[in-house]
Design goal:
Helix content is 47%, strand content 22%. It has 144 residues and is α/β, with parallel strands linked by helices. It has a single domain, classed as HUPs (Rossmann fold, 3-Layer(aba) Sandwich), CATH 3.40.50.620. Strand 1, helix 1 and strand 2 form a beta-alpha-beta unit.
Amino acid sequence: MYTRILVPLEHSDYDDAIIAHVRELALLCQASLVIIHVADGWAARNQQQLVLRESKEMKDDRAYIESVSDSLEAAGLEVESVLAGGDPASEIAAAVVREKCDLVAMSTHGHKGVQDLLRGSVANDVRHRTTVPVLMVRGAARHA
């Protein structure tokens, strides 16, 4: 069914839902995973043009996706991790092509109406920018 799944993570509680879901899906399909996080702070957006070093935020993001990748590998999956910088929807759509993925699996916040207009929806933008299927799983914030 699917052979290579791109999993965009935002480094938040909302990632838990898609990680759990994609772990089972990848095992079932015997698919490899590409975990991607798109850092979108000022340093991340300008790193290449200005030849900047990774910011603390980017280092933390890299450690996070590598930790997630390690836990998925421990479950028996083939996993790569990618840290990108810039506009999340554009970088995710580009990664689909570059990494030869046949599915994007991502969590959503479940905003409605005005919230999507105010905050935008990366998932919706990705859905419009790529030709591969996009699986969206509604995430939730952890409770203390």
